[in-house]
Write a structure and sequence with these properties.
CATH architecture: Orthogonal Bundle
Helix content: over 70%
Distance between the termini: 10 Å
Number of domains: 1
CATH superfamily: Farnesyl Diphosphate Synthase
CATH topology: Farnesyl Diphosphate Synthase
Number of helices: 15
Largest sheet: 2 strands, antiparallel
Order of helices and strands: HHHHEEHHHHHHHHHHH
Structural class: mainly alpha
CATH class: Mainly Alpha
Strand content: under 5%
Strand order of the largest sheet: 1-2
Number of strands: 2
Shape: globular
C-alpha cells in the first residue's frame, strides 16, 4: 500500500497490532454459537487493506497518542466496515458473489447467518466503544469517540449513503448528488477513523480541524479511485467482481466525468489532504504516505 520502506514496515507493524486486537475482542465459541463465531471471523480475517483502522492508529501516532487508547476505536471501525460489506454484498443489495478473493459471506454461510454475523459485528463494535479504553478517567474519551463513530454508522452516515446509492441507480444525477452519495457511502467512516484516532491522542480543536479536512479529502478520493478500479481493474487483482457499477447504472465519477477527469479529481483531493496536515506536526509522514498510496491502488 505504501512506497517508503519505513512506512511499509510501520504499516505491517500496525496491521499486526490491529489483527491482535480484533482477535482479543472477538467472542469465543463458549460464549456464542460456533457457527456465528466462524462467520464473524470469516469477514474479519484475512483482512483487506485495513485502511480505516490504519488511519485511526496513524492519526494517533502522528499526534503522540498512546496505542492502548486508539486500538479499541480502530478495531470497532474495522468491525463496522466489515459488517457493512457483508450486508452490501447480499442479494437484496449489491448481490455480489466475491469479496477479497473469496465467496461472499452469504455464499459461504447462507443469507440468514450472513445477516446475523453482520449484526453481531456492528453490535460488538459498540460494546467495545462503550467499554474501552477501560478506566473511569477514560470515560469522556469513550463518549467522544463513540459519538463520532455512531454518527458515521447511522442513518445519517453510511446507511444513508447506501440508500442514496441504490435509489440513484439508472437515474440522472448531478456532481453535487454524486459527491453527497460518496461522502456518506465511504467518506464518513474514513473521516471518523482519523478523527477518532486524533481524539484518542488528545487533539485540540485546531488539530482536529486539520484532521477532519484530511479525512474528508481522502475519503472522497478513495471512492473515486474505487469507481475507476471497477472500470479498469480485473476480478483477479481486486478480489471482487468488476464492471458491476456500469451494469447497475450506478452514479460514479467515471460515468459523469470520464476516466481521466476522475483521475485528476482524485489527485487534487489527495493533494488537498496532504496540505491539510502539512503543518500539523513533524510526524505526519505515515498519514502523508497513506494519502499518496490511494492514487496507486490496484485493489
Amino acid at each position: 500500500m505504501l512506497d517508503s520502506p519505513q512506512s511499509v514496515d510501520e504499516l505491517q507493524e500496525i496491521r499486526a497490532r490491529i489483527d491482535a486486537g480484533l482477535e482479543r475482542f472477538l467472542p469465543s465459541p463458549d460464549r456464542v454459537p460456533e457457527s456465528l463465531c466462524r462467520a464473524m471471523r470469516y469477514s474479519l480475517f484475512p483482512g483487506g487493506k485495513r485502511l480505516r483502522p490504519l488511519l485511526t492508529m496513524a492519526a494517533s501516532r502522528t499526534l503522540g497518542g498512546k496505542e492502548s487508547l486508539a486500538i479499541p476505536a480502530a478495531c470497532a471501525i474495522e468491525m463496522i466496515h466489515s459488517y457493512s460489506l457483508v450486508h452490501d454484498d447480499l442479494p437484496a443489495m449489491d448481490n455480489d458473489d466475491l469479496r477479497r478473493g473469496r465467496p461472499t459471506s452469504h455464499r459461504k454461510f447462507g443469507e440468514a447467518l450472513a445477516i446475523l454475523s453482520g449484526d453481531a459485528l456492528l453490535s460488538l463494535a459498540f460494546q467495545i466503544l462503550a467499554r474501552h479504553p477501560e478506566g473511569e478517567s477514560n470515560g469522556p474519551l469513550r463518549l467522544r469517540v463513540l459519538q463520532v463513530i455512531a454518527d458515521a454508522a447511522s442513518a445519517e452516515g453510511i446507511i444513508a449513503g447506501q440508500v442514496m446509492d441504490m435509489e440513484t441507480e439508472g437515474q440522472p444525477f448531478t456532481e453535487q448528488k454524486l459527491v453527497e452519495i460518496h461522502r456518506h457511502k465511504t467518506g464518513v467512516l474514513i473521516n471518523a477513523s482519523v478523527v477518532s484516532g486524533a481524539m484518542a491522542a488528545g487533539a485540540d480543536e485546531t488539530a482536529l480541524g486539520h484532521i477532519r479536512a484530511y479525512g474528508e479529502a481522502i475519503g472522497l478520493a478513495f471512492q473515486i479511485v474505487d469507481d475507476l478500479l471497477d472500470v479498469e481493474g480485473t476480478t483477479e487483482t481486486l478480489g471482487k467482481s468488476t464492471g458491476k457499477d456500469a451494469r447497475a447504472a450506478k452514479a460514479t465519477f467515471p460515468a459523469l466525468l470520464g476516466l481521466e477527469a476522475s483521475r485528476r479529481r482524485a489527485g487534487r483531493l489527495v493533494e488537498r489532504a496532504r496540505q491539510a496536515i502539512r503543518h500539523l506536526s513533524p510526524g505526519t509522514t505515515l498519514l502523508d504516505d497513506i494519502a499518496g498510496s490511494i492514487l496507486k491502488r490496484t485493489h
